[in-house]
Design brief:
By secondary structure, this protein is mainly beta. The chain has one helix and nine strands.
């Protein structure tokens, strides 16, 4: 069994290396403004930085780090405070449109390690950590051969972090390709 798995891994690596010349490998950095609606309870604003690679005009991956400010939520005479921090990996799929293909629809799927910091009345600040699974859609428009603007919506399934189970994230940003 171990030999079969090793043989399959070697064959996959060889096939990938043989096909590498067909890939473009375009690295990029991106900076995004994010607005996150935390389960219709809190609304937090923040930023995200990403480093990624587009392997061809249809597929890419990126790693990201995101951090938000805090939001105070007032309800039933109590004040709760929420903030988020996360990092993870997204897989991006692109569908180029138009004759020049400067506009593309974008679909994303990924995983994030999320820290939710919250404070309930009369309690000290708590931090909960867990995984979130992300799905998203949006668009990207190439201003030049190196600079693009993008807008994305992502839905995150959180793992009951601080009593939360989902988040809606909207982002608007700039991507610079090398």
């Amino acid at each position: 069994m171990k030999n079969t798995i090793a043989l399959m891994a070697a064959a996959s690596a060889f096939a990938f290396a043989a096909n590498a010349s067909a890939m473009e490998f375009t690295p990029y950095v991106a900076a995004d403004y994010t607005y996150t609606d935390v389960q219709n309870i809190a609304e937090v604003h923040g930023g995200k930085v990403s480093v990624g690679t587009d392997y061809n005009k249809y597929f890419g991956t990126e790693v990201f780090y995101q951090r938000t400010g805090s939001d105070r939520v007032h309800s039933d005479g109590e004040t709760n405070e929420y903030s988020l921090q996360s990092y993870g990996l997204d897989i991006n799929g692109y569908l180029p449109l138009g004759c020049d293909q400067t506009f593309a629809l974008v679909g994303t799927a990924g995983i994030a390690n999320i820290d939710v910091k919250y404070k309930n009345p009369g309690e000290s600040r708590k931090t909960e950590n867990g995984l979130g699974y992300r799905l998203g859609a949006g668009f990207e428009y190439d201003l030049t051969s190196n600079v693009a603007v993008r807008a994305l919506y992502r839905y995150t399934f959180a793992d009951k972090l601080g009593g939360l189970d989902h988040m809606n994230e909207y982002s608007l940003g700039v991507k610079y390709s090398f």
